[in-house]
C-alpha cells in the first residue's frame, strides 16, 4: 500500500472514533517499541494481522458492521495498485501429498504461499523468499496464521524482522543482530544480510548466546555445528512431514487427538543439547564449573556468599582446616555465589579448590542459577555441604532442598540476626532456621547464645536438639603478646576501635565515649561513610578515622593502650578473638555472643550498651593501672587458648557429620 494512501486512511481511522491509539499501543508493545504511528500500523499491518483497533471491537472484522466505516478500505485489492504484486495463481503442485500434519495447516500454508508475490520482485524479497519457511512462520506465530490477507514474506520484511520474529528454524533474528552490530549499521534486513553476506563469512545464526561455548564442549567449530544442526533439522522435518516418523505420529493422533496439537511444535525442532537458550546456558555453565573443579569429586563443599577479606580464617576456613587434619585438602571445594574474587591467602588449606560460581553464572537468571548450583553440587557427590551466608544456597533449598538432602548431608552456619531500620529482627537465623530445619542434617552456630535462643524460640524438641551445635572458632596461640606502650608522661593514651560504620556498631556511642574521655586519642578503623540510618555524626576532635585495613597484623598495636568494642547486636566477632590473643585489654559491649569472649574478670564487659558512664569508668580503670590491665588481658588469652583449640573444634564438627564420613 502506498505511503500517501496509508497516511490518508490512518487519518480517517483516527477521525472515525473507532480507533483508540493509546490503547492499541498498550495492547501491542511491539508496535510501541518500534516507535511507529499506531493508526498507520493498524492500516498497513494490524487489520490483516487480526489486531483489535480498540477495546470496543472483538475483532477488526466487526468494523464491517458500521456502514460509516468501510473496513474493506484497509485491505484494498493489491491488484488494483500493482497487477503483478500478488500471485493468485494456483499452487505449483496441487496434487502434492498432504504432509502428515494434516490439511488444516497445509491449507493455511498453501494459501499463504499463494499470497506471496510473483517472481521478479526486488533482490531483497527474492533472496529472502529462497530461504523463507512459511510453514514454520505460521506454526510459530499464530497471529500471522490468522491474518488471511497477509503475505508472510512481506510481513517479515516490513515488520517481522523489527519485531524479532524468525523466518526459519535456522535463523534467529534477535541473536544475529545482537551478535553482529554491523547488521543494524548496514540498514539491511538481518535475514537478507545473512543470506548474502554473513553466511559466506561463517557468521552464526543460531539463537543461543552460549553457542560457541557449547561447540567448545563438543569439540567442533561453531560453523561445523551450525551446518550439522541445519542438516539434522531438515532431515527430521522431512521425516515428520512425509516419512514413516510422521506417519506414526499421525496414527497416534487418531487414537489420541491431543497428540495432533504437538504438530506446530514439531515444525520448531529442538535438538539436544541445543534445546533452548536456558538449557544451553545451563549446560555451558555446568561444564565451566566442572572444568574449574578439574572434573573431580569433592567430599566437602563450602558455599559462601563472597571471599570475605579480613577477620582471619572465618568459619569457612576453620571448617576446612579442621577437616584437613583427617582428609586431603584436594577433596575440598569452596564456591562463591554472590560475589567473585580470590580468598585471602591462608584462608583455606593448601590444595583446596576455590571456584568463582558468581562470575561463571552471572548471566543466568536467578532460577537457572539455583538449578545449576544444585546440579553442580549433586555432580560432585559430596559427603557434606556447608552453607555460609550464601543467599543463593538458601533460595535453592526452597525447591530443591528435600531432593538434595536425600543424596548429601546439608549444613547451615548461622551467626547473629540483624535489625532493620525500624528495630525489627531479621536475618538468616530468624528467616531460615525453621524453614529448613527438616532438610538440614545440622546447624552450626558461632555462639552458645544463638544456639540457645534458636532452640527456645522455635521450640526444638529434646530429641532433635543434637542438630544444633556450636563451633567455637579456634584461636591462634602462635600470635605474639603485644607489650604495653612504654610509660611516658608526655604521651597521650591511644584507644583503638574497628568496625563497619553502621547502625550495628554504634559509632555514635564510640564518639560520645571519646568526648567523655578527652585525655585519650581514639583511633578508629573503618569506612568514613555512615550507612543504614546513622545520620550525620559530629566527630570529636580526639577521634581520628584511619580508613580500612587489609590484615589485623597491619595495625600499630604496639601503640594501643586498650581496645574499645561497641555493637548493639552480634555473634562472636573474629575481631574480638584476634584482639584477645594479643594481650591488649578489652572494653566492650555485651551483645549476643560477645560475652563468650568478653569474660568478667579478664576484660571489661559493659552490660548496657547505652551506659556511657560504664564505658568511661572501665577505660579510665585500664589507663590508671596498665600493668594490672595487661595481666587480666593475658588471663583472657590463656583462657581462650585452652578452650578454643583446633582439636575441640574438630571434635565438635565431627560430632554431627554423618558416621559414614567420620568412620569411613
What do these coordinates show?
The protein is an alpha/beta fold. It has 4 domains: 3-67, no CATH class; 103-205, no CATH class; 293-470, 3-Layer(aba) Sandwich (Rossmann fold); 494-644, Rossmann fold (3-Layer(aba) Sandwich), CATH 3.40.50.2000. It is built from 30 helices and 15 strands. Strands 3-2-1-4-5-8-9 form a 7-stranded parallel beta sheet, with helices on both faces. A hairpin with a 5-residue loop joins strand 6 and strand 7 (425-426). The longest helix is centred in the middle third of the chain and has 21 residues, at 222-242. The chain is elongated. The N and C termini lie far apart (80 Å).
Secondary-structure blueprint:
Blueprint (H helix, E strand, L loop, with lengths): L2 H14 L4 H7 L1 H6 L3 H9 L31 H4 L21 H12 L8 H9 L2 H7 L1 H5 L5 H9 L12 H7 L2 H5 L3 H9 L12 H8 L3 H21 L1 H12 L7 H4 L10 H16 L7 E5 L9 H10 L8 E5 L16 E3 L1 H4 L5 H15 L3 E5 L2 H15 L3 E6 L3 E2 L5 E2 L1 H9 L5 E4 L2 H10 L10 E3 L23 E5 L8 H10 L4 E5 L17 E5 L14 E4 L8 H7 L5 E4 L14 E3 L5 H13 L1 H18 L2 H9 L4 H4 L2
Amino acid at each position: 500500500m502506498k505511503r500517501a494512501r496509508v497516511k490518508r486512511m490512518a487519518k480517517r481511522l483516527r477521525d472515525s472514533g473507532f480507533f483508540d491509539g493509546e490503547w492499541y499501543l498498550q495492547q501491542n508493545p511491539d508496535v510501541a517499541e518500534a516507535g511507529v504511528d499506531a493508526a498507520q500500523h493498524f492500516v498497513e499491518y494490524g487489520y490483516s494481522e487480526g489486531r483489535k483497533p480498540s477495546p470496543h471491537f472483538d475483532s477488526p472484522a466487526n468494523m464491517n458492521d458500521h456502514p460509516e466505516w468501510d473496513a474493506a478500505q484497509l485491505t484494498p485489492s493489491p491488484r488494483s495498485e500493482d497487477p503483478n504484486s500478488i500471485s493468485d495463481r494456483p499452487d505449483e503442485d496441487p496434487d502434492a501429498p498432504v504432509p502428515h500434519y494434516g490439511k488444516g495447516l497445509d491449507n493455511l500454508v498453501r494459501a499463504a504461499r499463494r499470497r506471496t508475490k510473483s517472481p521478479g520482485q526486488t533482490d531483497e524479497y527474492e533472496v529472502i523468499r529462497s530461504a523463507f519457511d512459511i510453514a514454520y512462520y505460521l506454526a510459530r506465530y499464530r497471529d500471522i496464521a490468522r491474518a488471511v490477507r497477509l503475505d508472510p514474506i512481506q510481513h517479515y520484511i516490513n515488520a517481522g524482522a523489527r519485531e524479532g520474529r524468525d523466518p526459519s528454524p535456522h535463523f534467529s533474528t534477535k541473536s544475529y543482530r545482537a551478535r553482529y552490530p554491523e547488521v543494524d549499521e548496514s540498514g539491511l534486513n538481518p535475514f537478507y544480510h545473512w543470506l548474502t553476506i554473513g553466511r559466506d563469512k561463517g557468521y552464526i545464526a543460531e539463537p543461543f548466546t552460549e553457542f560457541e561455548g557449547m561447540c567448545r564442549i563438543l569439540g567442533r567449530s561453531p560453523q561445523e555445528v551450525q551446518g550439522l544442526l541445519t542438516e539434522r533439522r531438515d532431515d527430521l522435518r522431512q521425516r515428520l512431514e512425509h516419512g514413516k516418523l510422521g506417519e506414526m505420529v499421525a496414527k497416534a493422533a487418531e487414537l489420541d487427538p491431543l497428540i495432533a496439537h504437538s504438530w506446530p511444535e514439531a515444525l520448531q525442532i529442538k535438538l539436544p543439547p541445543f534445546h533452548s537458550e536456558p538449557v544451553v546456558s545451563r549446560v555451558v555453565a555446568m561444564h565451566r564449573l566442572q572444568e574449574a573443579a578439574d572434573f573431580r569429586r569433592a567430599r566437602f563443599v563450602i558455599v559462601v556468599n563472597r571471599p570475605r577479606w579480613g577477620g582471619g580464617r572465618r568459619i569457612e576456613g576453620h571448617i576446612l582446616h579442621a577437616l584437613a587434619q583427617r582428609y586431603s585438602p584436594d577433596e575440598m571445594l569452596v564456591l562463591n555465589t554472590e560475589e567473585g574474587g580470590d580468598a585471602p591467602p591462608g584462608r583455606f588449606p593448601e590444595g583446596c579448590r576455590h571456584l568463582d560460581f558468581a562470575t561463571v553464572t552471572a548471566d543466568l537468571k536467578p532460577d537457572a542459577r539455583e538449578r545449576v548450583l544444585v546440579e553442580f553440587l549433586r555432580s560432585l557427590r559430596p559427603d557434606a555441604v556447608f552453607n555460609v551466608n550464601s543467599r543463593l544456597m538458601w533460595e535453592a533449598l526452597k525447591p530443591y532442598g528435600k531432593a538434595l538432602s536425600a543424596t548429601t548431608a546439608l549444613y547451615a552456619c548461622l551467626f547473629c540476626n540483624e535489625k532493620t531500620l525500624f528495630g525489627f529482627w531479621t536475618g538468616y537465623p530468624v528467616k531460615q532456621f525453621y524453614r529448613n530445619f527438616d532438610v538440614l542434617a545440622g546447624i552450626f552456630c558461632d555462639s552458645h547464645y544463638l544456639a540457645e535462643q534458636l532452640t527456645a524460640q522455635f521450640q526444638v524438641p529434646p530429641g532433635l536438639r543434637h542438630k544444633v551445635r556450636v563451633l567455637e572458632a579456634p584461636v591462634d596461640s602462635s600470635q605474639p603478646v603485644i607489650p604495653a606502650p612504654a610509660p611516658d608522661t608526655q604521651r597521650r593514651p591511644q584507644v583503638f576501635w574497628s568496625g563497619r560504620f553502621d547502625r550495628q556498631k554504634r559509632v555514635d556511642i564510640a564518639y560520645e565515649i571519646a568526648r567523655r574521655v578527652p585525655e585519650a586519642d581514639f583511633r578508629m578503623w573503618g569506612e568514613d561513610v555512615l550507612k543504614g540510618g546513622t545520620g550525620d555524626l559530629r566527630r570529636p576532635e580526639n577521634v581520628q578515622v584511619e580508613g580500612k585495613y587489609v590484615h589485623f597484623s597491619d595495625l600499630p598495636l604496639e601503640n594501643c593502650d586498650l581496645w574499645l568494642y561497641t555493637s548493639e547486636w552480634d555473634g562472636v566477632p573474629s575481631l574480638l578473638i584476634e584482639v584477645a590473643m594479643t594481650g591488649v585489654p578489652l572494653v566492650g559491649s555485651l551483645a549476643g555472643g560477645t560475652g563468650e569472649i568478653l569474660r568478667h574478670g579478664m576484660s571489661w564487659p559493659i552490660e548496657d550498651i547505652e551506659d556511657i558512664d560504664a564505658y568511661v569508668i572501665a577505660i579510665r580503670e585500664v589507663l590508671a593501672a596498665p600493668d594490672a590491665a595487661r595481666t587480666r588481658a593475658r588471663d583472657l588469652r590463656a583462657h581462650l587458648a585452652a578452650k578454643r583449640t583446633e582439636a575441640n573444634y574438630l571434635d565438635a564438627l565431627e560430632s554431627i557429620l554423618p558416621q559414614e564420613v567420620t568412620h569411613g
